DNA sequence: CAGTCGTGGAA
DNA sequence: TTTCCAAGACT
């Protein structure tokens, strides 16, 4: 069925992407589905500039899922270094094992198979299917959500994320052909990341400015429900976990409990952090209370 | 559904 | 300096 005029954003967005797209390494033609999967794991809640060097090193060391799966998860967590959310490193390792065990070492292209992998959710599954395999799926990340909110809804910010609703919305905007859909998915993300940014959108250089409902309405401020405010990091359990993980990565042996006690003065909070890390599988406790990265 | 989970760049 | 928020997923 035909789409409305406002839905035809691809006419302006796709040509823009052809010349404005950043030359990100995982967009190169010869990049494998595995390398794309690795990039998507790293890009979850993490800026492109911080991911690029980690991704280069990771792919050089583990060019296939089998190569990563053959090593202990501790090596993955260590190589993840300070990208943040180290559970992603653990999950990427598990996903590599699952790819080897279920799919003969080849990253699957089917959405259901991708979604079944550890650490792969609605965004990552569609991103891999679309960008690594050229399949026509709506891909919605935080950038795309903001672009849609502004261009088609006329709002400064998208409402609270809802995977089902976001996917349906993007599906209605997606061009018919596989090739155009693939470019449109990437272009919407790129526009949100480089032009239609959260803080200071550059409408003066936006390729869809004349079609943008938000701009047309005079950039009204957002009045809808705000997304929950992220709790303060300083003094949080997350900070303590981060400090502990830094010790575990640096030590290529179990770290005695008395050394861990030195990283945080609040004993109760430290104990909570350690228990959480063990529960997540990021740390393994020995009989003497020493902690180490997981070997298996 | 709301909370939780790292780290650092940019305004 | 402080605050926002970033190619999300899991519980």
TrEMBL record:
Any Pfam family hit: HhH-GPD
GO molecular function: 4 iron, 4 sulfur cluster binding; 8-oxo-7,8-dihydroguanine DNA N-glycosylase activity; adenine/guanine mispair binding; metal ion binding; oxidized purine DNA binding; purine-specific mismatch base pair DNA N-glycosylase activity
Cofactors, names only: [4Fe-4S] cluster
Keywords tagged on the record: 4Fe-4S, DNA damage, DNA repair, Glycosidase, Hydrolase, Iron, Iron-sulfur, Metal-binding
Enzyme class: hydrolase
GO BP field: base-excision repair; mismatch repair
Keyword DNA damage included in the entry's annotation: yes
Keyword presence, Hydrolase: yes
Superkingdom, natural source: Bacteria
Gene3D superfamilies, A to Z: Helix-hairpin-Helix base-excision DNA repair enzymes (C-terminal) (1.10.1670.10), Hypothetical protein, domain 2 (1.10.340.30)
SUPFAM superfamilies: DNA-glycosylase (SSF48150)
Domain HhH-GPD: start-end pairs: 42-194
Catalytic reaction equation(s): Hydrolyzes free adenine bases from 7,8-dihydro-8-oxoguanine:adenine mismatched double-stranded DNA, leaving an apurinic site
Family: Belongs to the Nth/MutY family.
Name used for this protein in its record: Adenine DNA glycosylase
């Amino acid at each position: 069925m035909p789409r409305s005029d406002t839905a035809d954003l691809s006419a302006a967005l796709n040509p823009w992407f052809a010349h404005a797209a950043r030359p990100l390494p995982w967009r190169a033609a010869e990049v494998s589905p595995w390398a794309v999967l690795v990039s998507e794991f790293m890009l979850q809640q993490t800026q492109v500039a911080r991911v690029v060097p980690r991704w280069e090193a990771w792919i050089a060391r583990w060019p296939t899922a089998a190569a990563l799966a053959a090593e202990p998860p501790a090596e993955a967590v260590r190589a993840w270094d300070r990208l943040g959310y180290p559970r992603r490193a653990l999950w990427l390792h598990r996903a590599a094992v699952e790819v080897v065990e279920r799919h003969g070492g080849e990253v699957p292209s089917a959405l259901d198979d991708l979604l079944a992998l550890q650490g792969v959710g609605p965004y990552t599954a569609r991103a891999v299917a679309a960008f690594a395999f050229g399949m026509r799926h709506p891909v919605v990340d935080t950038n795309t959500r903001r672009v849609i909110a502004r261009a088609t809804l006329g709002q400064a910010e998208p409402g609270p994320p809802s995977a089902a609703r976001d996917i349906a919305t993007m599906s209605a905007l997606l061009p018919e052909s596989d090739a155009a859909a693939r470019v449109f998915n990437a272009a919407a993300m790129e526009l949100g990341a480089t032009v239609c940014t959260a803080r200071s959108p550059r409408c003066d250089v936006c390729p869809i400015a004349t079609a943008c409902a938000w701009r047309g309405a005079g950039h009204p401020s957002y009045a809808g429900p705000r997304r929950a405010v992220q709790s303060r990091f300083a003094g949080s359990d997350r900070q303590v976990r981060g400090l502990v993980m830094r010790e575990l990565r640096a030590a290529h042996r179990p770290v005695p409990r008395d050394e861990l006690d030195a990283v945080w003065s609040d004993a109760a909070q430290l104990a909570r952090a350690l228990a959480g890390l063990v529960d997540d599988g990021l740390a393994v406790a020995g009989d003497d209370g020493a902690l180490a990265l997981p070997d298996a």
